[in-house]
Amino acid sequence: MSPFDLKHIDKPDWIDPSKGVPTLMPISVVDDHSGVSSST
Asked: Which residues are 29's β-sheet partners?
């Protein structure tokens, strides 16, 4: 996983300011055997 910077996003209702600012983390997975890659 790695940090992801967005230019702009509206504040979702589920964000709780008392828990700090959330960080988006894209995930990429590669299967070593087949070489298939998947990203979110």
From this structure: 38
For residues 39 and 26, the answer to whether their CB atoms sit within 8 Å is yes
Residues with Cβ within 8 Å of residue 4, at least 6 apart in sequence: 23, 24, 25, 26
What are the φ and ψ backbone dihedral angles of 17, each rounded to 5 degrees? -60, -25
Encoded tokens for 23:
């960080």
pLDDT in tens, the chain (40 residues): 556 665 566 777 888 888 887 777 777 888 888 888 877 6
Greatest Cα-to-Cα distance within the chain, rounded to the nearest angstrom: 44
Q: What is the pTM of this model?
A: 0.35
